[in-house]
Automatic annotation (TrEMBL):
Annotated region (G4), positions in chain: 124-127
Annotated Gene3D superfamilies: 3.30.300.20, P-loop containing nucleotide triphosphate hydrolases
Locations listed in the record: Cytoplasm; Cell membrane
Gene Ontology MF annotations: GTP binding; GTPase activity; ribosomal small subunit binding; small ribosomal subunit rRNA binding
Binding site for GTP: 16-23, 63-67, 124-127
Name of protein: GTPase Era
Keyword Coiled coil carried by entry: no
Chain segments carrying region G2: 42-46
Highest taxon of source: Bacteria
Organism lineage: Bacteria, Pseudomonadati, Balneolota, Balneolia, Balneolales
Name of one Pfam family that matches: KH_2
Length: 295
């Protein structure tokens, strides 16, 4: 990797409340789906890295879990992830859903202790309301913190994203490429496979099930004809096992089918997906379990 004096690079952390559109925004900026997104809050649990490279420039986006007041160990680990991202970042994008714009005080508290970082206010989901409402929301939030810039976007339909990209580029300073230029993210395939199963689980199950589950890839065999994947779905309580499996295994079959389709499209190969449900009593509350499952 060349490191010329003209090369510029930097880290951009994407933070905000759950469901603000952080992961959608990052995927759209990269032109690739790197981070899973659903209509449910707290879909993202890890720091997901997305890399945008040009000949003389590299921007590393850090997608993060939504900022909440953590109430169990898994959520505490998620908030540590947010904290790491904002410390690593040169630029911070605070993503605010214009229709749900109450910014938690802990975000401003976080900002007030930071130096030498550009902090931009990004008003998202502008497709959902009037210009007037967008301006009013921006004004109210600007009253609470002195942002370096404010931009209006729709991560869903792409409006304003080119301008956001240009603004980020203007603020990226000289630095080496940190990753190979053809790399889009740093996690291995099995990480994305686990995330894709989790995404389908978020889409197909309700209430506490998505929040009580995690995916453990037990085996990943790349065979000539197909990839064999064995994955455990870890749940928090015995009673959740039955719900996950469903009557006569109907629910888990549906999950397996939709997850397999998404994974096949991702690895561009046939996939055999073997899913098993395991109970780990209160894994979410247990620091060593939370760490063991990769959080
Ligand atoms: P995150 O929790 O902040 O990562 O939010 P996601 O990216 O998972 O998005 C949450 C939901 O908001 C999803 O259903 C998205 O499709 C939706 N969403 C994200 N951006 C926009 C937007 O600009 N406009 C509209 N209408 N919906 C959006
Ligand atoms: Mg997300």
């Amino acid at each position: 990797m060349e490191n010329t004096p003209e090369h510029r690079s930097g880290y951009v952390a994407i933070i905000g409340k759950p469901n603000a559109g952080k992961s959608t925004l990052m995927n759209r900026m990269l032109g690739n789906k790197v981070s899973i997104t659903t209509h449910k809050p707290q879909t993202t649990r890890h720091q997901i890295l997305g890399i945008h490279s040009e000949e003389d420039l590299q921007i590393i986006f850090l997608d993060t879990p939504g900022v909440i007041d953590p109430s169990y160990e898994l959520q505490k680990a998620m908030m540590k992830t947010v904290d790491r991202a904002r410390r690593d970042a040169d630029i911070i994008l605070l993503i605010v859903d214009v229709t749900d714009y109450n910014v938690p005080g802990r975000i401003f508290k976080m900002f007030s202790s930071m130096k030498n970082k550009e902090i931009f206010l990004i008003i998202n989901k502008i497709d959902k309301t009037s210009d007037q409402q967008c301006q009013a929301v921006a004004k109210e939030i600007q009253g609470k913190f002195d942002f370096d810039d404010t931009l209006f976007v729709s991560a869903l339909n792409g409006e304003g994203l080119q301008q956001l990209m240009d603004t980020i580029k203007e603020n990226i300073t000289s630095g080496p490429p940190f990753y190979p230029k053809d790399m889009l993210s740093e996690q291995p395939v099995r990480f994305f496979v686990a995330e894709m199963i989790r995404e389908q689980l978020f889409l197909l199950y309700h209430q506490e099930i998505p929040y009580s589950s995690t995916i453990d890839i037990v085996q990943y065999d790349e065979r000539d004809d197909l990839d064999y994947i064995s994955a455990d779905i870890i749940v928090n309580r015995e009673s959740q096992k039955g719900i996950l499996i469903g009557k006569g295994g109907k629910a888990i079959k549906k999950l397996g089918k939709s997850a397999r389709e998404v994974i096949q499209a991702f690895v561009d190969k046939k996939v055999y997906l073997d899913l098993h449900v395991k109970v780990r009593e209160k894994w979410r509350e247990n620091p060593s379990h939370v760490r063991h499952y990769g959080y």
